[in-house]
Amino acid sequence: MCGRCGGRTGRRRLFPEQTPPGLNYAVVTGTLLDDPREGGGPGGTPILVMEIEFPVADPEHPRLLWTHASYEVEVPDDVGGQHVEELRKGTPVLVAGRLSERCSLEDGRASCRGTIVANLIHPGPPPEQRGGSLGARYMP
Prior knowledge:
Elements: E1 25-32, E2 37-40, E3 46-57, E4 65-76, H1 77-80, E5 92-106, E6 109-123
Parallel strand pairs: 4-6
Antiparallel strand pairs: 1-3, 1-5, 2-3, 3-4, 5-6
């Protein structure tokens, strides 16, 4: 058994910090699939809703494309700022935020979808493609 996993007793060790940094947090670069639309957050707060598509590497061969995935992104008013005007269908974008889930009821059927609640959005190519590095400035 893994020594870091709690030993033979089966008891699991606690995280070294009360709130582990970066837990359930995503940083994604991709392309907007459509123009952003206005929506409402869980508490009815105004947000922009957009869908981002991004490539997914093969887990066994990271240099090979495995598939493309998409996620819905919720951008609170205080996060979008001046960048909102630049967000249009087909725009490359970097998004960072907490992973969440939104459920709805339609025609008597419940459906849930993964969502990124953004706390950073940057239109255009990712900074590392301009010769820089993502670095700590984009981390939570």
